[in-house]
Amino acid sequence: MPYLETSAEWYEQSSLLLKARPTTTHVTSKYTVLKPNARKIKKHQKYLEKRAARPADPSRPQPSEPTLDNVEEPKATFVLKTYDPDSGTCLQYQTTKAAEVGRLIGSLGRLGRHMAALPEAMEDLSVPADGMGVSTPKVEEDVKVGGAPAEQKAGGGGKKKKKGKK
Amino acid sequence: MVARDHLSNDEFFTQLGNLFEYNRKKGHGTVYLTQKRLAFETEGQAPSSDKVADDPLWDTHPEKPLPILIRANNNKSTPRAGTDREKIDKIALSTIVQPDQLDAFFVRYAEACKAGMSGLKKRDRRGKKDKKKKKKGATETKG
């Protein structure tokens, strides 16, 4: 199943799905930490050796080194998946950034409101209760929810503009 | 799956913290978090059959707000020759969040997850500086 580009898009689509099928749809978030596999480490070492053996090719630009140094660190990902077994709809979003977690759980909370069949209008009341991490994206999400579905095709590019409008 | 009782919200958060901590100690592994509407097991709220027949979309507008079921679990692990894998049983937790506690629950939930998902990439400001320096260095060597 494809991954959606932005978390805002994922939230938008998920909330539409939840509105249509609130009882069967569930949201699964998977936090996973993977050790790099032995083969990858070996491959990387071979690559480094090879590169060291063949120094300074002046005709080619020097590749930047630090990008490859983290091969041996464990890799962590956070995947959000909204799935409705009735229709087979599956919406996914993946990130590796810790900074996004707060916002994403905030989205989970708002999707939770759809699940619980609480009215969306209550969201304004929830703002003070939600506190710091969630409050910033809230503005933009509110705009998104209010906006027509045609707007959502604007995707990530439109996000900043909308924020400015409010 | 083994039948088990739902935990209280408080208990759930302590157990969830343990689950993340366990994952961190192990150095790798997965934590699954699931949420869905609790449409069953709630007495008096289950729709009667004629209601469903009348309105196929009854579930989009229930009379009362419904509670939400939150689950958390990890994967079980089996020992395998040639690796340092140990036998680990699956840990599974679940709790029910009442609609009126939903907002408060998710605030705590966000905190717990932020604290627990420590393996994800931090915002790296130092890296940017290094890159800038490197760019500068590169131009100097060229010129």
TrEMBL record, chain A:
Ranges for the region named Disordered are: 42-73, 127-166
Q: What is this protein called?
A: SRP9 domain-containing protein
| GO biological process assignments | SRP-dependent cotranslational protein targeting to membrane
- InterPro entries named among the record's database cross-references: SRP9-like, SRP9_dom
PANTHER family given in the database record: SIGNAL RECOGNITION PARTICLE 9 KDA PROTEIN
Q: Which residue ranges does the record assign to the SRP9 domain?
A: 5-115
Name a Pfam family for this protein.
Answer: SRP9-21
Q: List, alphabetically, the GO terms of the cellular component aspect.
A: signal recognition particle, endoplasmic reticulum targeting
Record's superkingdom? Eukaryota
From TrEMBL, chain B:
Its Gene Ontology cellular component terms are:
signal recognition particle, endoplasmic reticulum targeting
For whether the record's keyword set contains Ligase, the answer is no
**Biological process (GO), any one:** SRP-dependent cotranslational protein targeting to membrane
Kindly list the places in or outside the cell where this protein is found, as annotated in its UniProt entry.
Cytoplasm
Q: Does the keyword Mitochondrion apply?
A: no
Which InterPro entries does UniProt cross-reference here?
Signal_recog_particle_SRP14, Signal_recog_particle_SRP9/14
Q: What is the source species? A: Bimuria novae-zelandiae CBS 107.79
Q: Name it.
A: Signal recognition particle subunit SRP14
